[in-house]
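Slide 14.
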Amino acid sequence: MVNIRVHGRGGQGNVTLAFLIAMAAFYDGKFSQSFPVFGVERKGSPVAAFAKIDDKFIRSREQIYEPDYIIIQDPSLVKVADVLTGAKKNTVVIINSDKVPAKVCPGYTGKVYCVPVLKIALKEIGKPIINTAMLGAFAKISGLIKLESAKKAIKENLGEKYGTEVLEKNVKALEAGYNY
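Slide 15: predicted structure.
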């Protein structure tokens, strides 16, 4: 089973990102689940969400304490929250940043990918909505979900709710995150 932990702040689409990862994996024919963990947090407070992907049925329902992938949507959380707790030697970190990995995750010796999803979102969507660009980066870096499945997940989950224009912008952000 592959365990993915998403960190960000309330309002950044962390729960939606975990859900889109799980849905894309489902469309790829895998078993998946996603779920958030939060208490009384408000917009701007640290939030975590989880996704699990496997080739067989997933029975576990617990939080992820030793992730295979850590996605950090807000790089300031590295300094104020324990977002790297439980990281193993081979845990891959994907972080919203245009800096070099040693600057954003000092002391972490595992693989770190810095992807400027905020810049991508501002260019493609016109707003700081970063989760679809991060979905694209995750798809490319992990190889766990196909780009077409990620597009389908976005279309199925955002299309009717937000309309064609917003959907098209989010698909462009997905593709830009994937191609970065």
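Speaker note: Residues 2-179 form a domain with the Pyruvate-ferredoxin Oxidoreductase; domain 3 fold (CATH 3.40.920.10).
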